[in-house]
Amino acid sequence: MSADPARSVREVRAFVRSRRRTSARLSDRYTSGFMLALLVAVLGRPVGEVVEGLAGQADLARLGPGLALLALSVAVGLAAARALGPVTLPAADAAWLVLTPLDRRAVLSRSARALAMVALVAGGLLGLGLIAVLGAPDQLVWRLVGAMVLGLSASAGGMALAVLGQASQTWHAWLSVALAVLLVVAVVAAFGPVRAPLAAMAGAPVTAVAAAAAGAALFAALLVRRAWAMLGRMPAGPLLAASTRAGQVATAAVVLDPGALAWIAEDNHWRGRKLRSARWPSMPAPLAMALPDWLRLVRRPGRLAVVAASAALPAVLAQAGGGGALVGVSVLAGGLAVAATGVSGARRDQDNPALARLLGVGTRQALLARALLPALLSGGWIAAALTAAEPGGVGALWLFGPLVAPALAAAALRMARRAPVDHSMPVIDTPGGAIPTGPMLWAFTGVDLALLGCLPAFVALTTPPADLTALLAAQALTGAAVLIAYVLRSRPPRTR
Predict the structure, then answer these.
(1) DSSP code of 136?
(2) Which of 161, 310, 394, 426 sits between 20 and 30 A of 87, alpha carbons compared?
(3) Across residues 66-76, what is the average pLDDT?
(4) CA distances from 442 to 257, 414, 447, 456 (A)
């Protein structure tokens, strides 16, 4: 091996490539380049037309909500990067090269290049979103350049901060602070009395935009330089853990089994934790079986806070110009997602019904007991979301929250108890391409109950009538009927 660390890593990778059965050929590189050029050619004209349509003054009524959505998108990206790693390696490299004396930065160079590409794409999208929100009253080209520099600086700086947070607990704390600041900025921009400062920001001269872009680029460059230096001292423990998570996610994506991600997240949560024994609660057996779901919710106040804060998203979408259909879909989809956070026990029962059989609890009794938590979560979340989204915060729309809760609870339970994707099902050939029916049916399992049980509420949210009494009564009957029918038609899980 050479004394040069980077050359040593290259020699190791060349040795591995030489032992493979197949290697990348010139035709493979040509195909990749051709597909990239084709993508640029297809998207070039639509993107150009979108950019040309950005010239003009910004809509002051939508300025605050638009900036809030951009801040939330950056926060979601940072949270996803922190959850996934972001620095990861393939399973073979993580098992073999990480613990060797090779230069750690050279080993992680491929991952660093991949993160740079992700930051480049995310920064471009963020820049387009920024210029779309702020508008371009004059000098469109220079304002577009400034917005792109700001977007790239935010994405590159955020990615570098996530890398630093993976390597150091101190920087991990700073990453948490950055997430909190972004959330505060989003709330203030959406609901705070900041219309005058935002209007001044939208009408700022090009020189001010250039100065802000230069400052952001300098700060991002400092973070990137620090992250590049930190790659050489990246601890092996967090790197191996992140590589394991990334490998599990990749496996679930390759085999088209998204349901495995829930098991992966739950196993990662309980791995390494010490379990304590406690007295059996003095309550009926079905409620005692559902008690762990409530305890998990109470013991994760951070998740509960995020769920509560997300109730403001439909209001932000409404202020940003989203139509009634978009707001209605966001409310019902958000309620279903919130309900799905409280059904992990039903997923466990479906995979291993030993506890229910030991306690002599039937499937229907267990489902009714487990439906209480998702119904409470979804009903409260939708009521809060509709109260915030409704003009003036008064009206009867919030009553749909408790009324759609039974249907959403049934849909969440159905989603939790669905079987893995059946890849043996036929593939439908359409003019737009082949559609695998197995993943499609898996994706619609549970959503079908939500669509059926929340139809009156969706009609009321998209085209609100003068009198909501009939739709409220219809929603009450539909929601209860869907939950009762689902529980009555449920069957015990098959023994594996």
Answers:
(1) B
(2) 310
(3) 89
(4) 9, 11, 10, 25
